[in-house]
Write a structure and sequence with these properties.
Elements (H helix, E strand, L loop, with lengths): L12 E3 L6 E6 L7 H12 L4 E3 L17 H18 L2 E7 L2 H11 L5 E4 L15 H8 L5 E3 L8 H10 L4 E3 H14 L10 E6 L8 H9 L5 E6 L12 H12 L1
Parallel strand pairs: 2-3, 2-4, 4-5, 5-8, 8-9
Antiparallel strand pairs: 1-3, 6-7
Helix pairs in contact: 1-8, 2-3, 3-6
């Protein structure tokens, strides 16, 4: 496994590459940040790709409690970043991780994208074995009078990278206004998926403890794309870009984009 020697950071980045015509917009997950994408971005940059990543509104303030924010605010920031790239580069690829996937899918339904990568797409949450009530309904009801819940342990198998993420992540809580808004985004995007024809690569952790892996299968089957691929990671939890399968993810994404 390629050793990652740098330090993870949680800030927007722009890495100019060799191709004057093509750039890639990278979209992070809910309540997280650009550190989720950093190792993959460095690998793709070494291959000559141009990469841009932003922090969404409500994800860009270093503080203990995650602020309120909505999917419309995140999408507006994503679309602005896309249009900034499009002003210089004729073709834009999009890589979304977790909640970055429905954002990327929504962008693909509104604007021309060359290729789309969805990593552990958040389309439904993994139902915990101990809860008789569906997690989504629980969040919708509890979230109305409980704005924050403590953030549980990170979904990670690799202890080294997990320790790094714990140092750079901003929030110790999950904001339920934001979580409910992400669910609204998913409901908005689902009917659009059959109309999306962008070549798409989906990579899913088989043992994901955060999102339901069936969401990746659903996305693969529902997409209107003529070119689509679903690949599985066997050794990681949700954050496949940083966990034990990060080299496999980097190789798959590189091969697909190039």
């Amino acid at each position: 496994m390629g050793m990652f020697t740098g330090q993870l950071r949680n800030e927007p980045f722009f890495l100019p590459g060799r191709d004057p015509n093509r750039a890639c917009l990278m979209l992070h997950g809910l309540g997280a940040g650009t550190y989720e994408l950093q190792i993959l971005a460095e690998h793709l940059h070494q291959q000559g790709n141009t990469l841009k990543a932003i922090l969404y509104p409500g994800h860009d303030q270093p503080q203990a409690n995650m602020p309120n924010s909505t999917w419309q605010q995140w999408y507006k920031a994503v679309e602005r970043a896309y249009l900034e790239l499009k002003a210089t580069y004729s073709e834009v690829d999009v890589i979304g991780f977790s909640t970055g996937c429905p954002l990327g899918l929504y962008l693909a339904s509104q604007h021309p994208i060359r290729k789309l990568v969805c990593l552990c797409p958040y389309l439904s949450l993994k139902q915990p074995w101990y809860s008789p009530v569906p997690l989504e309904s629980l969040i919708k009801s509890v979230g109305l009078f409980l704005p924050q819940v403590p953030r549980l342990d990170l979904p990670f198998r690799d202890p080294t990278l997990k320790a790094q993420v714990n140092r750079v992540k901003f929030y110790r809580t999950f904001n339920l206004v934001a979580v409910r808004s992400a669910m609204e985004l998913i409901e908005t995007v689902k009917p659009l998926i059959p109309e999306i024809t962008v070549p798409t690569l989906i990579i899913q952790a088989r043992h994901d403890t955060i999102v339901n892996p069936e969401g990746a299968v659903y996305l693969y089957e529902a997409l209107g794309s003529g070119i689509k691929k679903l690949a599985w990671c066997e050794n990681s939890d949700h954050i496949i870009t940083l966990d034990y399968d990060r080299d496999q993810v980097a190789a798959e994404v590189t091969a697909f984009l190039n």
